[in-house]
């Protein structure tokens, strides 16, 4: 699908994604134009810049963009979805789809820049939530011209986007080279020379492939006929359940002719997660799970993938890609003749698929990847048809409001340019035809996943809808991580002291302070040389932590009576507290709260003082987290990464300003990408040492150098030992 960026405008074909009155999801093709902070849509390519659009909306700092991953639709399109929503009114949102992940990434970045570069607003009028129920910004045309976005610089990749912000040794040791691939094994802390082999070692193959990272990603995700052209292990595969746009459950059956003699056929059931980094790198991660809809198959032995996946990084200006393929697998072989060395040789054979992938790209010269689109999702099980026919509870609620109440609501004049205005109900019956659409509607219905031998579209029964909504309300899931743990109920406790401290780093389920020099931050001359330096200390001292489970969100822990913060407030001392409360949704809401104390007056730290007393838009643009998995599996380290993140741009954050504290309640479940990473981390939590650093980003020479607010080290956390909030 064509997309262009000319003279500060970004334009191209996208799909609007909506639910109709029956709860069925559908897409409509529209031509979108983004100019300054104005987003407009047309039913055809506009003939000139003055043509009146069909729909329009204005973007400001209240607009957020989330990446929803990829979805399939009953007309066999695979789209990469992203959603714009208004933080002051979550019903005001627009879901769009692009035909490729690269197009989606460019639109997401451009929309984010368009909304963020409107801050601060010199000519805006602020209306509080309490007074009007929304936030309204009236920006003058003059300021819009002054702050226009330079889209031509989008292609330039910021150095900070690529380089890690953590100093850590590589855990991989090379042990050979075969078929043009370098072979590595994961060395343990007690095996610095890489000589010892585990029973089920993690093995990685690394090679360069002559193809774009997007084409390689599409090929690796395919479970259709294309996979048989390079994956000699693959027999057939299917998607058991589509969890969200970044996560699914897949079942893959393997050929037996490449396995040792007398070894039974194997299959794997994997939870597969993917994401795209800002520099164009694609990460695909997977590990074994149990699913009630896909029990072990007769005639197959189910192997256990402890961790595995791919990292595809563009090199040579994107013309080639550096591909890493890693696997750690228990083949579940009980035969006495199958020694660990034999299992290891099988795993090495698996990662050698990378050489076959490289040769296929050479033979096709980077072409021939379109057929994966029509082959993959049509082989999925019945769960995909359920996704397209059964409305989600949240989506159904928004659809009802949109179809019934939008005209009845009294809205201020600025609300006429809301995101919902780009979603008109009449669009349900008009779509722009695709260039290659030559099939009749009847044939489409006959071949769709909704119809299996029936001539009419099968709608969900009322009882089926009720059951689905009940399952969503209870947050049930059809799969279970092999390392999943339960919860314990505990008694009352003091906020700020529910997680024990262990300076010796030996006690499980405890916290301590991480070494600040592990993390890299912006130095004095960063604006000129883009260089980061080791942090040499922290502004605040970590004084406590909470590890709590509850059936609801636990906000404003600093304001709870009897807690650590309120004890100091009662004494009237000068101490100021900074609380980071990370909330992880699931069968129970897990809250990890970290307490930092400043002993000197807040006014002595201008940047922190501006952050504490600033508004939410300013805070969202400055608060950074640097993560680091210092001990743990490769799959977890790869999923978390070592790059600083502006938390407020990726997740929803609620700020609570108290007398002697500021608390940040971070909703990890507000992002599909973050939720996928967190679910993966929770499965390995007992075996992880997690380190984090927090800071306020410095953007000007007066604010440099940066200084860490604080660090923490979390040792082998255990969900079953979290304290239950009544």
Automatic annotation (TrEMBL):
Q: Name one GO cellular component term.
A: endoplasmic reticulum
The compartments listed are: Endoplasmic reticulum
The answer on whether this UniProt entry bears the keyword Endoplasmic reticulum reads yes
What keywords would UniProt list here?
Endoplasmic reticulum
Q: Where is the START domain?
A: 151-346
Which GO MF terms are attached to this record?
A: lipid binding
Q: Which residues form the PH domain?
A: 7-116
Q: Which SUPFAM superfamilies match?
A: Bet v1-like (SSF55961), PH domain-like (SSF50729)
Record flagged with keyword Kinase: no
Where is this protein primarily located?
endoplasmic reticulum
PROSITE patterns xrefs: PH_DOMAIN (PS50003), START (PS50848)
Listed name of the protein:
Protein ENHANCED DISEASE RESISTANCE 2-like
Question: What is the native source organism of this protein?
Answer: Brassica carinata
